[in-house]
Amino acid sequence: MNAYTDVSFFPRNAKPLNSYRKYWAARFGTAPFLPMSRDEMQQLGWDSCDIIIVTGDAYVDHPSFGMAVIGRMLENQGFRVGIIAQPDWQSADPFKALGKPNLFFGVTAGNMDSMINRYTADRKIRSDDAYTAGDIGGKRPDRAALVYSQRCKEAYSDVPIILGGIEGSLRRIAHYDYWSDKVRRSIVVDSKCDLLLYGNAERAIVEIAHRLANKESVQNITDVRGTAFVRRQTPEGWFEIDSSNIDEPGRVEAHVNPYLMVSEVAKQQGQSCAREDEANAVADAANQQLTSMGRPLDQKPQAIKFFDNPNLPGLQGKGKLKVPPRDKSVIRLPSYEQVKSDPVTYAHANRVLHLETNPGNARCLVQAHGEGTTARDVWVNPPPIPLTTAEMDLVFDLPYARSPHPVYADANGGHDGDTKIPAWEMIRFSVNIMRGCFGGCTFCSITEHEGRIIQSRSEDSVIREIEDIRDKVPGFTGVISDLGGPTANMYRIGCKSPEIESACRKPSCVYPGICQNLNTDHSSLIHMYRRARELKGVKKILIGSGLRYDLAVQSPEYVKELVTHHVGGYLKIAPEHTEGGPLSMMMKPGIGSYDKFKQMFDKYSAEAGKKQFLVPYFIAAHPGTKDEDMMNLALWLKSNGFRADQVQTFYPSPMATATAMYHSGKNPLARVTRQSHAVDIVRGEKRRRLHKAFLRYHDANNWPLLREALKTMGRADLIGNGKHHLIPTFQPTTDGNYTSARRKNSTVVRPGRVLTQHTGLPPRKKK
């Protein structure tokens, strides 16, 4: 049985979502929309809400919106759930709109991190917001999760605050904050929430709701996976691995070292994962060093601590230290004060965190905040157990209205103009078929939030949703805009061995190459595509999610199926760069993988008699990118005839590995030391603009900056009017003509001839 249908290989089985006894309020039945007002509550026969969800997004009752998924899941358990969407945060009054919740406030900043939602990569405030009616910016505050939590506490001080969403996931420990350019405390401390739920939270929220309904104190709920909270000290009976200093990363024994990449479980199965040599070397070194109980690395004292009895049963062996119980092990990260003042220690903490993201082997983490009498520990439990296919079906088969709440409708009951919600319009006719991503791209936050274990729906569930869209969603013209998720083609793909998957600590299954233990079979996805195309009333199934092309080329049949039937003229893919330096820092495949996919794409497009194009995406200013790398990328773009209309500049999101590189100048993909190789970081507005300018080499506004840079780099040979040049010698004037950049009073050159012949730009029309 494949990993995506069975979670029995994880350390302990999770209670199925449908196994709880429903709360007594289930008698009220299902609401057409979760209520946003007292009037709606009265129409449903409610005198109060059991749970109130506060969100920074407009309320769209659709499974692509977090507040709807969590709200409907709790409703399925029998709870009465209300929604307060995009409240005015200037006072606590709007947070009292639905009255006092009986159990707790659920707080989320929304589907996007509020800071990324509100600011560009250049820290300029945005005027739009795709998750707001009318696409209007400013409907949520900076760091919305903090502000909403504080206002909820002001409204009803005795009501527990359960914080969730991606904004919380990315801030569960001390984290670098790009907008203030400093390290901030864990959001658990700053928000004063009772519990933080990170990752996909259905399993955790359901358990917590039932336990609170059974009168259990929220302070006693400390054993739920996927949660973080504040506690004063480590409980008795726990084995603490001290990794608070980069010079003493805990013991180097195979299961205990926070840096180890592969578990012994793989060896016991007679198989191996990537970096097995590294793991063996570390384990061998450990066996040589650890010959007595509690002897720490480098002979440094207090690297290992026992909180109960130093002679815990099962920990001592003959000449070798045995592994303590994983479910009683906790890794102590460097404190907030340490990572705030020392970027190298920050990089070390980030590395340890990312090595503890596999729910099959992750241990608890703890990080101190404050000193002396004010000291507190932020305790982070292991990630949640992934949902089974049956549980995924339950989540996506809930009775969603599949549209925005009627409060956003215009006078005719539609959603146009001031009532249009762009994010909903974008996914209105799309279907999410899976969760998670094992790509491990360092600039991406999917691993920190959804995890790397792929959780897939059943084919029947996906087909039912397509039929619902066809039959119930107004405006459907027969075109499904996407069957995808975080990626287009990881559906039902995972490790060949559930045991290895539960033990592996690799950050990626496809970098530096595709792991030999990864099942790359695309047959389930192909079958789904074919079945969906055959549905009555469905004219076209498009694939809009980003394609993992290095994985796709492992299945030529899939590429042919995709190119022949599911490309609407253009297909988005993301090579991100062409040069090895930045690609290694991104953990992305070399450009050769792109070339191989392009050959297959062109071949199958020609066989289908279709003229179709790839649309590649690239990132400017990523850590590890030199100016020469961007120059070479620009030359590649020009030689291949690409002109980027929109440019993505690296955006340091909290807790991402690339963000740790950006802040520390070190590479957390390898062991972090003071002597670790420095990563080239693109800082400063001018250099970031230069890297963006190379991506848009064809924009005349960028030519002065590029000319200056090319001359400084000793590459003035790329300036000229020949086909082999990157940018022309001439600069447009305000009247649309072009003058020599070398002489202010040069002769005006005929723009049509110069641009068409030498730069490929269309000739300008005379006024």
Brief overview:
By secondary structure, the chain is an alpha/beta fold. It is built from 26 helices and 26 strands.
Commentary on this structure:
This protein folds into 4 domains: 33-231, Response regulator (Rossmann fold); 238-367, no CATH class; 429-696, tm_1862 like domain (pyruvate-formate lyase- activating enzyme), CATH 3.80.30; 700-767, no CATH class. It is 30% helix and 13% strand. It has 26 helices and 26 strands. Strand 23 (613-620), helix 22 and strand 24 form a beta-alpha-beta unit. Helix 11 (343-354) runs antiparallel to helix 23 and helix 22 (627-639) packs parallel to helix 24. It is globular, with a radius of gyration of 27 Å. The protein starts with 37 loop residues before the first helix and ends in an 8-residue tail after the last helix. Mean pLDDT is 86; it is low at 1-9, 248-257, 260-271, 274-321 and 741-767.
